[in-house]
Amino acid sequence: MTKLIDIKGVTHAYKTASGPLPVLRDLNIAVPEGAFTAVVGPSGCGKSTLTRLIAGLMHPDRGEVWLDGERVKSPRRTVGMAFQNPVLLEWRTILQNVILPLEIVAPTMPKARRIARAEELLALVGLSGFEDKRPSELSGGMRQRASLCRAIVHRPDVLILDEPFGALDAFTREDLWQTMHALRAEEPFTSLLITHDLRESVFLADEVVVLSGRPATTQYVLDVDLPGPRELEVLYTPKAVDYLATLRRQIQIAQGRAPASQGAA
Amino acid sequence: MRRNLGRIAVPLIAVALFLAFWEWIVWVNGWPNYKMASPSDIVPAFWKFRGLFFEYGWQTLWRTVVGLLLAVVVGTFLGMIMGFSRLMRDALYPLLVGFNAIPKATVVPILALMFVGQHNLNTILIAFMISFFPIAVSVSIGLSTLEPEYRDILRSLGASQFTVFRKIALPKTLPEFFGALKVAVTLAFIGTNLMEIVSPHGRGLGALFDSGKISADYPLMFAVLLALAFLGIVLYYIVVVLEKIFAGWAERAPG
């Protein structure tokens, strides 16, 4: 399979008043076409920087970001993004919010087709009947569903998810994980998910990349060998529990507090 | 239906109560009309000068509106510059604050000398100068506090800065803009009247007030104040209607 997202030796630092603050160091991540990769790591290790680099909103100091065989130099229309904050436009209805990317990417697309496309996605995430509501009339989970629809309405090759489920309560979050699997079954996209939630990473991803503390580099890569589409019960299988334990240990190492020797327990 | 009726009736009853209280307090203290005219003194004054009230009221109104429109255009423009550019914000803020701190009453004679006899222009300029500041500040704050994610959802698709402004920044700033416009409306009236009262041979309600003062017609002076309040209310509610049309989404259902 071709590498749809290919991050090659990316090093990046922020300019601050007290000199440059390195956030990424020689980072390599490759995501094959159609795959779902999760990136986990300690807080403030530069995960969000990574999303902005892939989207072409920022340029790395060193190294290269390639999408679908082309080097990223500026924003590309084949990318969809969703953030922790659903950032829906309050003056638009849910339907109009979902249509927004089409107005930029496909300005000539007939209105009826735009609406049909948005309605199809809203139905897929269980928001039928809420098309004409304003974002302020919806719950946090519903807003995030609409935000996911907006991220994929223009059929992007690459979906960048920057902790989109992070601010939701636990049950709503699990609902949205399943929605994510439903979307993957219907829509072909390659995803990179930034998250703090190890269960989320194991449940959703084919591969989990653990980043080290700042400046972040690839510390560990976990292949998640669980059949899809997954049900929540899969998280309680021995295999998944084992994955979670491995990731937990890796995070502690990344945080600089490696657990005491294995035998001590 | 009943709710709409209430929304009209409540303010009207409040105004009626206020006028009744006014009448009562003048009557109970036995104040002569040069100390405090009562509503019953003012009604004949309105009737006596009704032609002038319409003519001058119109002059005051259109000058104020033109000054206000100028303030909207310039204020929005300045707000945009300051909202998008940190450099321009740092450069322009002290100048604007300094300019705004100057009492506009002191600018009146300067303008009157600068554009001698151009009474309309002078008046509009004062109305403009006194009212553009809140608009510029609110637009700049609205734009500069736009969360980066809002920009990113369109920028990541390759949208231009202008598209981001038109589709996101501009509508998102509208509630702040209308908030400032409500302040600006009343300020613009103050500006118009400053010029109308001070400048000789003036026109407009300010000049009518001045002639009331000269001829010691105290009920007339109070009548002018009431007329100004009335125009202010009318213009304010026009802004409220515009706000409902263009930024009604910002209003949450109560409770």
UniProtKB/TrEMBL annotation, chain A:
Gene3D superfamilies: P-loop containing nucleotide triphosphate hydrolases
Domain ABC transporter: 5-238
Sequence similarity: Belongs to the ABC transporter superfamily.
InterPro entries in the record: AAA+_ATPase, ABC_transporter-like_ATP-bd, ABC_transporter-like_CS, ABC_transporter_ATP-bind, P-loop_NTPase
Annotated signal sequence range: none
Alphabetical list of CDD domains matching this protein: ABC_NrtD_SsuB_transporters
The organism's taxonomic lineage, starting at the top: Bacteria, Pseudomonadati, Pseudomonadota, Alphaproteobacteria, Rhodobacterales
Keywords assigned: ATP-binding, Nucleotide-binding, Transport
Domain of life: Bacteria
Protein's UniProt name: NitT/TauT family transport system ATP-binding protein
GO MF entry, a single one: ATP binding
Keyword Oxidoreductase: no
TrEMBL record, chain B:
Gene3D superfamilies: MetI-like
Coiled-coil blocks: none
Transmembrane segments: 7-27, 61-84, 91-117, 123-146, 177-198, 218-242
Subcellular locations according to the entry: Cell membrane
Annotated InterPro entries: MetI-like, MetI-like_sf
Entry GO terms, CC: plasma membrane
Membrane topology of the entry: Multi-pass membrane protein
ABC transmembrane type-1 domain sequence ranges: 57-243
CDD domains: TM_PBP2
Family as reported in the entry's similarity comment: Belongs to the binding-protein-dependent transport system permease family.
Annotated protein name in UniProt: NitT/TauT family transport system permease protein
